[in-house]
Amino acid sequence: GIQFKYTTGTTTRSVSGLKRIRQYYSGFFRARKEIGKIQRREKIDVLLIGLSSFWFTWSFAMWSRRNKVLFVHERSEYPFIGVSSAWRKLKLWSYLRITCRLFDVLIVITRALETYFSEWVRKDARIYRLPMLVEADRFGSGILKPEGLPEKYIAYVGSMQGSKDGVPIL
Questions:
Q1: Which of 12, 81, 90, 95 is surrounded by the fewest CB atoms within 10 Å?
Q2: DSSP sequence for 26-54
Q3: Are 110 and 118 in contact (CB under 8 A)?
Q4: Shortest CA distance to 10 belongs to which of 28, 29, 23, 21?
Q5: Per residue in 41-57, pLDDT tens?
Q6: Nearest to 117 by CA among 64, 75, 57
């Protein structure tokens, strides 16, 4: 029963860099327009955002404050993992010290993330821990360890590429 809309007008990300930029910005402006229309029809209580871009987040934060809407951000991982370039370090610095302070509530999935972000959110902001959606207990029964492996080992399933979720940071 939850209605949703792709404000970019598509579920497919363009291969063209220029088209992706156009999709990104048009999606943002259409989202702002759509949220305004909904707010005029019925009161919005919560605005949940997954973006980390400062300008877009700041824009939604100001709208939320003007309209007395709870502004919520979800973080299921550490921000900007594998930061190496000066530009990425600057983005991380501004995200932690400026952007994180815009939120009324931050939703995280682990105690470690809760501890990490508690330093960066406003003092009056709340951090809500919503445990991971994977129930590890479901996978424990009936699974046998492959033969020939030591008692302690790491099994990795995923992309061998990239600096974010790949093997290089395992």
A1: 12
A2: HHHHHHHHHHHHHHHHS---EEEE----H
A3: no
A4: 23
A5: 999 999 998 877 888 99
A6: 75
Longest dimension (CA), the chain: 64
Cβ contact 124:105 at 8 Å: no
Averaged pLDDT score across all residues of the chain? 85
What contacts 99, CB < 8 A, 6 or more positions away?
52, 54, 57, 58
Q: Is 66:42 a contact under the CB 8 Å cutoff?
A: no
Tokens of 169: 């940071």
Name the residue type at position 58. Answer: W
Exposure of 136 in the CB half-sphere (CA atoms within 13 A): 2
129 close to 109: Cβ distance less than 8 angstroms: yes
Answer yes or no: pTM beyond 0.90.
no
Tell me the CA distances in angstroms from 79 to 72, 109, 116, 129, 151, one per residue in order.
16, 13, 10, 17, 33
